[in-house]
């Protein structure tokens, strides 16, 4: 079938529109990339002189290093705790009926609706009222609450697509429940568990608003350290940090895409 | 032997977390009815004062700003997100589809700070857009984006876009292509197929994406805080300011509580709407 003039027109306007939208998505990152190499401490386009000094500054600034270590620690512990709690709950949610099941489910899912600033404030007030010290464990607790719904959902979906026959076969051959769990169920769930935990770790690493309410000077996370830097200094150091951040995240996503195919993870196939 | 092995052990950690969530919610409710004692973190006696204080202009303005931001952000995000999701789902080549997916998703994993800071560099008075427009001779003085609603909306659209694209793409990918083929074979042009088949079938997805966009914008903090710079107060920035500038936890708690009830009400309205639309879709 030959394409009519209208079809050609539609094709081309579609392509132009798509390019413009993708340009809008990428524009801030391209601009921040250029700005990070600007030698002057004051923003100007196009930069007159180029240098790498903001990258050196970013690496040498002590709060970023401390924040990065804190954030990695919080993301690793938080994602692990959320994975253990979340997969356990997803399992009982999928397999059993018990009293208060739907109430428990709504409470655990509520952080999807409750704004992060409210979650942060709530735990700040709670810890103040209980005179708990503001340690890193408080920050980890806040992060677990925020990422848990995503882990539960991800593991629950894997359990729904689960082939029960393997478990039934093991059971009929006389395997005890614990043995079925450890040798059949868990190994088959590994991909779902890994993608859930990975997603939780990324979310936790990026979380800013709730953390701002519960951190102090020594427990501040990487995003909080970045926010405090912008409030104090106007130089492009944060542009350098942003460029490193964007490259790291894009590389991570490419790897995930290679192994898991994002279309499948996000259910947009 | 128990018919439900592991039930206790598997649900124990999540029960503890559910207790923590409930306790922090009770803490907010309780503090919102307590008096503020200046200079102390401990609240005073029972009072309704916090809620009467909320009737003041500043707080009303913050509510209005938040609602306006949510409204404009949702509209523009849908207008930009729909073509993007459509192109992604219908792209013929796998490479193009992957490229669109990665480009629209990467910002989702960059966090609020990197993205908001990047927009400050783009929109600032000496930023990219103003420098480009001035060099082209289109404007004489820089346009003010910083500390304005427009600037905050632009950055919030960018912030909300990925999640909306994912939701719209999920809805579009589940539309039966045979319906479109049938319409085409009966002689409908592409515009007509889109307007009378694809668009109506994706309305539940659009409604779901809109409610998510609303919730995201409502809870956004860094973007209105950094780009609004105190000139565009929202509920989130005000909660932070009240909580940390004067340590007035009772007032911050009541503001959060009212905001939360407002969100739940709006989302409930959306959900009823979505259910009606789905029923409508099933019957027609």
Describe the structure concisely:
With 269 residues, chain A is mostly helical. Chain A is 76% helix and 0% strand. Chain A has a single domain (58-265), classed as Orthogonal Bundle (MetI-like fold), CATH 1.10.3720.10.
- Give the overall form of chain B: globular
Q: What's the CATH H-level homologous superfamily of chain B?
A: MetI-like
- What's the CATH H-level homologous superfamily of chain A? MetI-like
Order of helices and strands of chain A: HHHHHHHHHHHH
Work out the strand percent of chain A.
under 5%
Q: How many distinct helices of chain B? A: 13
What is the percent of helical residues of chain B?
A: over 70%
- Whole-number mean pLDDT of chain A: 88
Oligomer: heterodimer
Percentage of residues assigned to helices of chain A: over 70%
Largest sheet of chain A: none
Q: Tell the overall outline of chain A.
A: globular
Keywords:
heterodimer, A: 269 residues, mainly alpha, MetI-like fold, globular, B: 284 residues, 13 helices, 75% helix, 0% strand
Overall description:
The complex is a heterodimer of chains A (269) and B (284). With 269 residues, chain A is mainly α. Chain A has one domain (58-265): MetI-like (MetI-like fold, Orthogonal Bundle), CATH 1.10.3720. Chain A has twelve helices and no strands. In chain A, helix 3 (62-95) packs antiparallel against helix 8 (177-206). Chain A is globular and about 75 Å long. Chain B is an all-alpha fold and 284 residues long. Chain B has one domain (54-283): Orthogonal Bundle (MetI-like fold), CATH 1.10.3720. Chain B contains 13 helices and no strands. Chain B has helices spanning 7-32, 49-53, 57-90, 94-105, 111-123, 128-135, 149-173, 177-185, 190-201, 203-219, 222-228, 235-245, 249-283. The termini of chain B are far apart. Classes of the chains: A mainly alpha (269), B mainly alpha (284). The interface between A and B is large, with 93 and 87 residues.
């Amino acid at each position: 079938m030959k394409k009519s003039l209208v079809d050609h027109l539609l094709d081309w306007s579609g392509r132009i529109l798509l390019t413009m939208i993708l340009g809008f998505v990428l524009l801030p990152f391209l601009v921040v990339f250029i700005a990070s190499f600007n030698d002057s401490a004051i923003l100007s386009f196009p930069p007159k002189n180029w240098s790498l000094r903001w990258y050196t500054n970013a690496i040498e600034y002590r709060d970023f290093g401390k924040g990065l270590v804190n954030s990695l620690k919080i993301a690793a512990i938080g994602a692990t705790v959320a994975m253990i709690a979340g997969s356990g709950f997803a399992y009982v949610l999928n397999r059993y009926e018990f009293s208060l099941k739907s109430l428990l489910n709504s409470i655990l899912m509520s952080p999807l609706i409750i704004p992060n600033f409210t979650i942060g404030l709530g735990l700040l007030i709670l810890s103040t009222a209980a005179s708990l010290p503001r340690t890193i464990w408080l920050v980890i607790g806040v992060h677990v609450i925020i990422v848990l719904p995503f882990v539960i959902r991800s593991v629950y979906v894997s359990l729904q697509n689960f082939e029960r026959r393997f478990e039934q076969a093991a059971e009929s051959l006389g395997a005890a429940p614990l043995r079925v769990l450890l040798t059949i169920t868990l190994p088959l769930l590994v991909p779902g568990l890994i993608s859930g935990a990975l997603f939780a770790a990324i979310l936790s690493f990026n979380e800013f608003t709730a953390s701002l309410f519960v951190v102090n000077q020594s427990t501040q996370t990487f995003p909080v350290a970045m926010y405090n830097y912008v409030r104090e200094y106007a130089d492009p150091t944060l542009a350098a940090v942003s460029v490193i951040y964007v490259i790291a995240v894009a590389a991570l996503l490419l790897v995930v895409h290679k192994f898991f195919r994002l279309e499948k993870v996000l259910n947009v196939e | 032997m128990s018919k439900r092995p592991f039930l206790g052990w598997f649900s124990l950690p999540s029960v503890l977390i559910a207790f923590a969530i409930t306790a922090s919610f009770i803490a907010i409710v309780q503090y919102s009815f307590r008096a503020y004692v200046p200079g102390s973190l401990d609240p005073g006696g029972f009072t309704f004062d916090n809620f009467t204080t909320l009737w003041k202009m500043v707080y009303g303005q913050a509510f209005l700003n938040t609602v306006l931001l949510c409204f404009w952000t949702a509209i523009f995000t849908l207008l930009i997100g729909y073509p993007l999701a459509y192109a992604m789902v219908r792209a013929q080549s796998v490479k193009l589809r992957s490229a669109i997916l990665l480009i629209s998703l990467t910002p989702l994993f960059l966090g609020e700070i990197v993205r908001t800071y990047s927009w400050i560099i783009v929109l600032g008075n000496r930023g990219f857009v103003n420098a480009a427009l001035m060099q082209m001779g289109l404007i004489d003085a820089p346009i003010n984006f910083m500390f304005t609603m427009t600037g905050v909306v632009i950055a919030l659209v960018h912030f909300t876009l990925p999640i909306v694209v994912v939701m719209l793409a999920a809805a579009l990918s589940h539309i039966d292509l045979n319906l479109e083929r049938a319409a085409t074979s009966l002689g409908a042009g592409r515009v007509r197929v889109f307007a009378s088949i694809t668009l109506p079938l994706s309305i539940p997805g659009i409604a779901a994406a809109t409610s998510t966009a609303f919730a995201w914008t409502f809870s956004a903090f860094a973007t209105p805080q950094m780009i609004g710079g105190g000139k565009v107060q929202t509920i989130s920035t005000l909660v932070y300011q009240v909580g940390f500038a004067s340590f007035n936890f009772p007032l911050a708690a009541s503001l959060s509580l009212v905001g939360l009830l407002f969100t739940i009400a709006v989302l409930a309205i959306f959900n009823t709407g979505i259910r009606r639309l789905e029923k409508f879709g099933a019957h027609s």
